[in-house]
Every structure is written in structure tokens, then in C-alpha cells.
Design goal:
The chain is an alpha/beta fold. The chain has 13 helices and 15 strands. It has an eight-stranded parallel beta barrel, surrounded by four helices. Strands 1-2 form a two-stranded antiparallel sheet. It has a two-stranded parallel ribbon with strand order 7-10. The protein is globular and about 55 Å long.
Length: 377
């Protein structure tokens, strides 16, 4: 196969961290942790298989018990969590990789059947859909509106979780303010109905995300901190309002902090908000493209378009999920494995997790059919 020359494979740098290429493994929730949130040895295998990424951003990990979203997601607020993650980071480092850990509080995306606690949120507005629990899908509950003390405590919990992540061997952390979870709920007008200093105008709605990020940066150093946002994303019932004002304002407030990066989910270089954020942000931008097709050419085309539009690094989720050797495949122009959605979440085990073949270990087409069984949407 012919090797392809592109900026994707050039070395890059985050503040204080050299990267061998510009391809980032995006965080993907896979529900393979223990019930208490402790990472497992199977997870160490999964991430080590993908260590050729320039950077791995590990899946969302909750900073406190009430922040849990779904069953068997990871946590990073207790000693067992730190020890479990240390096994993962050691395996990735031994394989030549580098890792950040995403810190995520679910806010209203949670359920007492999962966490044992009533979810908290900026306002008592329930998720407008069912949520998966250990008992299957159940109606969402109305979250408890966070008090001023709740807000202060949660900010502190994020900072403590960041310190735990460093103790667990991560190079840094990514604060998750996207995809309809707690920090994004503060940004969005339909989930944040507050009339205090955390709700209403744009400057107030960005305050909680900014304070969490600032506290995490103060705890572990700004260069070890990234922030993920997904402007205009409507997942989990979000309707932001004033999207084109929110994110440039957030970028301007945090731009002088010296953060490691700003991560834009579902990045579209043709949109005004992307261009405004790129202009406002003085540092590294990681961009996660909207992929119209998960093929070698489709991934490269979308990634290179974002690089041309000013992104510094490209974050890919499902392509890395199905292709542990994605960097090699893109470099050689080799075909990509298809994602087996049946095993994506809530199923546990190695199927659809650590059994995706590398180029030098491709099964026959009959074997692929046998592994996959019936596809489900």
C-alpha cells in the first residue's frame, strides 16, 4: 500500500506535551467499568491497543457520585478509581501512548436507580426522554435545582477529581461542557432558568463552566487542562439559544488562562460559530468532525478540511473504536473496520470492544459475520 503524506501525521504539541501525530482518540462512553465506577483490566487492553493515537482522551469519568449518568461508567472520586485508572495509564504508556481523562458530571442525565441519588441540575427541568438504568430504560426524574452551596461543592469536586486523575497517571484532564450534561445544561437557555448570577444573560450562563475550568486549572496547572464544548448540539434535549454569542464569550473568558486546548465537538468549519471561536481562542483547538461516511477517504477528507480551517488536532471517535490501528490505516489508505453498534454500550465484555482486528490480524468475512451476529440500530 502507498503511504499518504498529510499534516495529520506530522508531530504536534500541546503545552508541555509532544505528540507524534495530530490524530486524537475522542472520549467514548463504553460502560465497561465495574458497577462502582472502577476501571477494569479489559479497559487497559482496549486503550493500549489504540496507543498509536497522538493523544487518547479517555471516556467520561464522574467527579462525584451524584454525577453518574449510566450504569458501569467510570468514576475518579475514590481510591479504587485511581488505582484502576493507574492500570490503564500504565498500559498505554508502556505501549507508547499519552492520555487525558475527561471529567463529566451528568446533571439531569442520571437516575436514582443508577446512582441511588436524585440528580441535580441548574433548574428542575427533567430530561425529555427515558434514560438507561440497571433496570432498563426508565422515565427521567425531575432533578433537584442546585443551591449556591451545591455549585461551590461541585466546583471543588471537579478540582479534586483532576488531582486524582494526575495521581492515576494521566497527562491531564478534559472538562466536559458538551453533549447535554451538567455544564452544558448551565449554558443552555431551556435547562437553565436561574435568576441568580448563574442564569439569564450569556455572561452568567457561561459562569459555571468557567469556574469549574478555572478551579481545575488552579489545581493541576492550566497546561494540563482541556475544555470540550459542542456548540449548537441538541442531544439530551438541549436548546442553547444565543449559540453564536455563548461560545466566543466563553473562549474570551478562558483564553488568557493558558489551557492546553479547546475541544470542539461536531465541528463544522463552514459555520459562523466555528469561525468565531477559532478567532477568539488563542491556543490549540482540537476539532471533532461530523463524518458523513466512516471510510478512509471520508475520515481523511473531513479531517483535512478542519486542519485547513485552523484546527490543530483532529479528534475521532468511532473510527478509533473500530480500528485500533487507525493511524496506520489512514497513513496507508487501508480500508476501515465497520463499527458493530450491537456491542457499543450496556453489554460489557470484549465483543465490539477489544476484538476489532488490526491490519495484520484480519479475520475472514465469515468470521466477521459470526462475530457480529445481527446488527441493531
Amino acid at each position: 500500500m502507498t503511504q499518504h503524506t498529510t499534516a495529520l501525521f506530522e508531530p504536534a504539541r500541546l503545552p508541555g506535551l509532544d505528540l507524534p501525530n495530530r490524530l486524537v482518540m475522542a472520549p467514548l462512553t463504553r460502560n465497561r467499568a465495574k458497577a462502582d465506577g472502577t476501571p477494569t483490566p479489559l479497559m487497559a487492553t482496549y486503550y493500549a491497543q489504540r496507543a498509536s493515537a497522538g493523544l487518547i482522551i479517555a471516556e467520561a469519568s464522574t467527579p462525584n457520585p451524584v454525577g453518574q449518568t449510566y450504569p458501569n461508567i467510570t468514576a475518579v472520586h475514590g481510591p479504587a478509581h485511581v488505582a484502576g485508572w493507574r492500570q490503564v495509564t500504565d498500559a498505554v504508556r508502556d505501549a507508547g501512548g499519552r492520555m487525558f481523562l475527561q471529567l463529566q458530571h451528568g446533571g439531569r442525565v442520571g437516575h436514582p436507580a443508577t446512582s441511588g441519588l436524585t440528580p441535580v441540575a441548574p433548574s428542575p427541568v427533567a430530561l425529555p426522554e427515558t434514560i438507561f438504568t440497571p433496570d432498563g430504560h426508565r422515565p427521567a426524574v425531575v432533578p433537584r435545582e442546585m443551591t449556591a452551596e451545591d455549585i461551590r461543592t461541585t466546583v471543588t469536586d471537579f478540582a479534586k477529581a483532576a488531582r486524582n486523575a494526575i495521581d492515576a497517571g494521566f497527562e491531564g484532564v478534559e472538562v466536559h461542557s458538551a453533549n447535554g450534561h451538567l455544564l452544558h445544561q448551565f449554558l443552555a437557555a431551556n435547562t437553565n432558568l436561574r435568576t441568580d448570577g448563574y442564569g439569564g444573560p450569556v455572561a452568567a450562563r457561561i459562569r459555571f463552566t468557567a469556574e469549574v475550568t478555572e478551579a481545575v486549572a488552579a489545581e493541576i496547572g492550566a497546561e494540563r487542562v482541556g475544555l470540550r464544548v459542542s456548540p449548537g448540539n441538541t442531544v439530551n434535549g438541549i436548546a442553547e439559544g444565543e449559540t453564536e454569542e455563548l461560545y466566543p464569550a466563553l473562549a474570551e473568558r478562558l483564553g488568557g488562562l493558558g489551557l492546553g486546548y479547546l475541544h470542539l465537538g461536531y465541528a463544522d468549519p463552514e459555520t459562523p460559530v466555528y469561525r468565531k471561536v477559532r478567532a477568539a481562542w488563542p491556543g490549540v483547538i482540537i476539532a471533532n468532525p461530523v463524518l458523513k461516511e466512516i471510510t478512509t477517504e471520508g475520515v481523511r477528507r473531513a479531517s483535512e478540511a478542519l486542519l485547513a480551517a485552523g484546527a490543530d488536532l483532529i479528534a475521532l471517535g468511532r473510527p478509533f473504536l473500530a480500528n485500533p490501528d487507525l493511524v496506520t490505516r489512514l497513513r496507508l489508505g487501508a480500508p476501515l473496520n465497520e463499527v458493530r453498534d450491537r456491542y457499543f454500550m450496556y453489554v460489557g465484555g470484549a465483543a465490539g470492544y477489544t476484538d476489532y482486528p488490526a491490519l495484520d490480524a484480519q479475520p475472514s468475512s465469515d468470521s466477521i459475520v459470526a462475530l457480529d451476529g445481527g446488527r441493531v440500530a
